[in-house]
Amino acid sequence: DSVSEAMKRFSAPEYLDDYAPNCVASKTVQIEEAPLVLVIQLLRFSYTHTGHSIKLTKKCEILDHLDVETTASGPPLDYELFA
Predict the structure, then answer these.
(1) How far apart are CA 39 and CA 73, in angstroms?
(2) How many other C-beta atoms lie within 10 A of the C-beta of residue 49?
(3) DSSP per position, 14-77
(4) pLDDT digit string (tens) for 3-27?
(5) Contact, 10 vs 69, CB < 8 A?
(6) b/e per residue, 61-73, with b = 16+ CB within 10 A?
(7) Which of the listed residues 7, 10, 15, 44 has the most CB atoms within 10 Å of its CB?
(8) What is the torsional sign of CA 79, 64, 2, 49?
């Protein structure tokens, strides 16, 4: 996985199956206006439904650039990445 793929999954619609009977509901997280400096925090742990933590060992590829599309009109912003 890469940071770019994680951003796409972050902004993909999430379907709420148990929201209401006979209804299709979804929610989406979008960036309305991208900041000049974007800070991304990568999680090192995941939590189970019982509250126990599990250390994540999956590698995340960090490319040189990240294009971020916004809901505002205009071209996507191109961020230079470094870690």
Answers:
(1) 22
(2) 5
(3) EEETTSSTT--EEE----SS--SS------SEEE-TTS-EEE-----B--SEEEE--SSSSPPE
(4) 888 888 888 888 887 767 777 888 8
(5) no
(6) eeeeebeeeeeee
(7) 7
(8) negative
Q: Could you report the per-residue pLDDT of 27-48, keeping only the tens digit for each?
A: 888 888 878 888 888 888 888 8
Q: Which residue's structure tokens are 């989406």?
A: 28
CA 1/CA 74 separation, integer angstroms: 27
* Of 70, 66, 62, 60, residue with least CA distance to 79: 66
